[in-house]
User: What shape does this take?
Amino acid sequence: MAVNDDLDPVRRLRVMAAATPGCVVVERVIAAPFEEVWAVAADLEGELPRYQPSVKTLRVTPGQGDRLEVVALGRAGLCASFAAVLRPGWCWMQSRTSVFGLAAVPVEGGTLLGRAGATRRRGLRMLAAPLLRRAFAAELDRFESRVRQRAQ
Assistant: This one.
């Protein structure tokens, strides 16, 4: 599939979320340069478990080009394997049961960061959406804190 270069990563995230049943997107402007924000986002193994509370550890194995294999171990003991794409400003990960996305673009006053996600379990989609919005907002609070801590 060809990448449409007319869409910046956050706009692409919105499109992917709209095409994914039950997907929720939360966005925030973080008062930091793109490079500092994306340094946290791109450090999947080191940072994602710090701002995503259900993830205990994450292991990333490089694939072809910007493709990755990701194995996440949850705090409840569940394990999930994700096919992922990671490039500057863009991260999209899909497992059999869930979707995870991050996208960022520089904007006036900092960096616009978008967080998308969904469960692929049909029966849970409608129930999960309101919970995911609150969880993602709290997650972005922790993410922003990590950006500030790393910048010090």
About this structure: The chain has four helices and seven strands. The CA atoms of residues 10 and 103 lie 5 Å apart.
